[in-house]
Amino acid sequence: MRTALGALSVEAADPQAMQTFWADVLGRDAQQTLLSFRPQQRPKTVKNRVHLDVYTRDIATLVDAGARMLAEHSGWMTLADIEDNEFCAFPDPAPAGDARARVFAVCVDSDRPEELAAWWAPVVGADVRNGPDGTPRWLYGSTGWESLIWKFVRVSDERVVPNRWRWTLVGEPAVVAAHGPDGAFVDPQGNEFSVLRPTCPAG
């Protein structure tokens, strides 16, 4: 079995309310495929280092669902969900379905994004391509996230708390980094993730 990316596991003060919000925004099937929610270990105090990029027909529909506007940029906007988790919304180039939004990328902050993209690419069988700045830091075709871009976003701020949004690996990864302080696995830059290993059939 190849190693695949599974759902993002999200800390939440109210997991049920968060599940309801994101199911309303993305549709129930998309939410259950990409997002699961767990009780938080600590309150949110800083900007998340992992967030979603979504396409939407109309920003107003996200606000109607309970999202909050944070900033307006050229061609896109930063919003927050009902627990102040940041996400970015872009005009949908190919609207389809009835959902308010659809996810097209998972973004991870890094002060050395090229290194992190190069480390993760062989783990999940992805193709490394250039981001808008011409540096190789976006992953395409990741197993399990074939329809998503995995973006490593250049930032200068340091990690100060564990990630509230964590990805999951499904299968037996060829490379596993050390354990973090709360038992999660961590990659070379300290991003926590979970591993769900396949079970052997009985008999």
Q: Which bin fits the share of residues in helices?
A: 10-25%
Structural class call reads alpha/beta
Q: Write the H/E string, N to C.
A: EEHHEEHEEEEHEEEEEE
Main beta-sheet annotation: 8 strands, mixed
Shape: globular
Mean pLDDT: 91
Instruction: Give the oligomeric state of the chains in this entry, treating copies of one chain as homo and distinct chains as hetero.
Output: single chain
Distance between the termini: 19 Å
Radius of gyration based on Cα positions: 17 Å
- Record field, number of beta strands: 14
- What order do the strands of the largest sheet run in, or round the barrel if closed? 5-6-7-4-8-11-10-9
Q: Beta-strand percentage?
A: 35-45%
Tell me the layout of helices and strands.
Layout lengths: L3 E2 L2 E5 L2 H12 L1 H7 E5 L10 E7 L2 H7 L2 E5 L4 E4 L5 E6 L9 E10 L2 H12 L2 E4 L5 E5 L8 E6 L10 E6 L14 E2 L5 E5 L7
Parallel strand pairs: 2-3, 4-7, 8-11, 12-14
Antiparallel strand pairs: 1-12, 2-12, 4-8, 5-6, 6-7, 9-10, 10-11, 13-14
Describe, in plain words, how this protein is organized in 3D.
With 203 residues, the chain is an alpha/beta fold. It has four helices and 14 strands. The strands form two sheets. An eight-stranded mixed sheet has the order 5-6-7-4-8-11-10-9. Strands 1, 2, 3, 12, 13 and 14 form a six-stranded mixed sheet that branches. Strand 5 and strand 6 form a beta hairpin. Helix 1 packs across helix 2. The relative contact order is 0.20.
Offer a few descriptive terms:
single chain; 14 strands; 4 helices; 203 residues; globular; six-stranded mixed β-sheet; 35% strand; alpha/beta
